[in-house]
Structure to design on (311 residues):
């Protein structure tokens, strides 16, 4: 009975440390905000139902989107390399093939109307340093209807939800700004396998040039995200992406406007990059616990057996 008491005391003390003291220390050391579930409550709800056919005409025509963006699935090839795009705009204008699957519809609409404002970085730009993507001022009709049409078009060409892989979500939403060297991802794309050293040098030099332009445009180089999932954890990444200004007032990291599913996929990509053995380790932990329980029980029974004779 005394042994049981000791065991219970140990369990209680350990639990207090684990469930109360550790999370408290953690929350004191790292700021943490609750998730808003990617609702973007500050953005106006969509009032119009979009027509993808009209949207296509706008995206390709009066909206001028394809002047800067490629749309590979619609046969619009990039007119510039990522580096040339960064030379023109400071950052690559991303391919729009899967924008409709990655970004929240409300966000996309707000973004087309006023990109810097939707990204919560408007105060970083002005007449002397305009945001690289212009606002859409309308094509002569009802501007809200026209924007809804373009959003509907982007949604109609994007991959279905179940085909939005972690890699695709990350590359679409984050890849033009962040490298992940554990996955051989650079801001200008996946690092190819090189046959010749000179090809590698040429590629590395393009990456460096892109990064220099990006740093000049944003004010700081976005960090390599290989280890962030380990150092900060998934809650931080997810809520930081949802609202970067909440954590870092005045940061150049934009609110990217990803929807909840895409955010989940982005976190999965980073998890896989930074901690590929996590699932394995967690399932191992379960077996270790079972082993300990059996061991404690066996030890207890054995002790009873030994002491029985002496009583
Ligand atoms: C003058 C060039 C230019 C034009 C025209 C343009 N864009 Fe962009 N767009 C950009 C650049 C550059 C970025 C990257 C901005 C950044 O990362 O800060 C961008 C980013 C985007 C994004 C990513 C948003 C996010 O949250 O990451 C979407 C979606 C987009 N543009 C859609 C459009 C649509 C739709 C149109 C047409 C109505 C359009 N763009 C017209 C240059 C342009
Ligand atoms: C237009 C470029 C741009 C895009 C797109 C972008 N980021 Fe960032 N990100 C930045 C910059 C710049 C910083 C550095 C912020 C600072 O130090 O103020 C940053 C910082 C971060 C950080 C580090 C925060 C910290 O506490 O140090 C994380 C994590 C991050 N980004 C995740 C993401 C994810 C995930 C995505 C895609 C959903 C993404 N970013 C898209 C520019 C970008």
């Amino acid at each position: 009975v005394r042994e049981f008491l000791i065991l219970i005391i140990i369990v209680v003390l350990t639990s207090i440390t684990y469930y109360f003291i550790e999370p408290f220390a953690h929350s004191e050391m790292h700021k943490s905000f609750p998730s808003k579930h990617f609702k973007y409550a500050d953005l106006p709800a969509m009032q119009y139902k979009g027509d993808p056919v009209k949207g296509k005409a706008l995206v390709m025509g009066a909206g001028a989107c394809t002047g800067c963006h490629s749309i590979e699935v619609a046969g619009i090839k990039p007119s510039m390399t990522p580096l040339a795009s960064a030379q023109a705009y400071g950052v690559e204008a991303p391919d729009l093939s899967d924008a409709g699957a990655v970004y929240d519809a409300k966000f996309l609409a707000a973004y087309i109307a006023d990109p810097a404002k939707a990204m919560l970085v408007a105060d970083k730009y002005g007449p002397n340093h305009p945001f690289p993507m212009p606002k859409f001022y309308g094509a002569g009709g009802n501007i809200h209807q026209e924007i809804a049409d373009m959003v509907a078009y982007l949604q109609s060409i994007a991959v279905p939800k179940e085909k939005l892989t972690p890699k695709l979500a990350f590359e679409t939403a984050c890849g033009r700004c962040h490298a992940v060297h554990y996955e051989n991802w650079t801001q200008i794309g996946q690092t190819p396998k090189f046959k010749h050293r000179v090809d590698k040098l040429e590629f590395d030099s393009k990456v460096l040039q892109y990064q220099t332009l990006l740093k000049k445009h944003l004010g700081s180089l976005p960090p390599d995200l290989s280890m962030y999932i380990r150092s900060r954890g998934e809650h931080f990444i997810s809520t930081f992406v949802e609202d970067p200004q909440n954590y870092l007032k005045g940061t150049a990291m934009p609110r990217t406007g990803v929807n909840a599913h895409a955010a989940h996929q982005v976190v999965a990509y980073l998890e896989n990059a930074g901690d590929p053995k996590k699932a394995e380790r967690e399932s191992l932990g379960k077996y270790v616990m079972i082993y300990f329980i059996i061991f404690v029980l066996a030890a207890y029974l054995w002790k009873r057996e030994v002491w029985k004779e002496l009583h």
